[in-house]
Specification:
It contains three helices and three strands; from the N terminus they run βαββαα. By secondary structure, the chain is of the alpha+beta class. The chain has one domain: CBS-domain.
């Protein structure tokens, strides 16, 4: 577990324009999305923002919950790969 790094979470209502500033200052590749009660509600990789990143027409309309996916497979270090793979959609 010493290789696990803390990831900065992104509020679901954060405007994309605000996220762009944070994104330009981080080396993080995956972004957990949290509700106002700090509950984890989704996640997105940096690749998922490409369509908005280069679209000046829509970037002011998007909030981060629009980008994050809630289809998550949770696992623990004790889970073996086969049991995790069986849970894939």
């Amino acid at each position: 577990m010493h290789l696990v790094k803390k990831a900065e979470s992104i509020p679901e209502d954060m405007p994309f324009l605000e996220f762009k500033k944070l994104f330009s200052e981080t080396k993080q590749h995956y972004f957990p999305v949290t509700a106002s009660n700090e509950r984890f509600i989704g996640i997105f990789p940096s690749n998922d923002i490409r369509s908005v990143l280069f679209s000046a027409e829509t970037e002011h309309l998007v909030v981060m919950k629009d980008i994050g996916t809630s289809k998550i497979i949770a696992s623990t270090p004790a889970d073996d790969r086969n049991s995790v793979l069986k849970n894939l959609p």
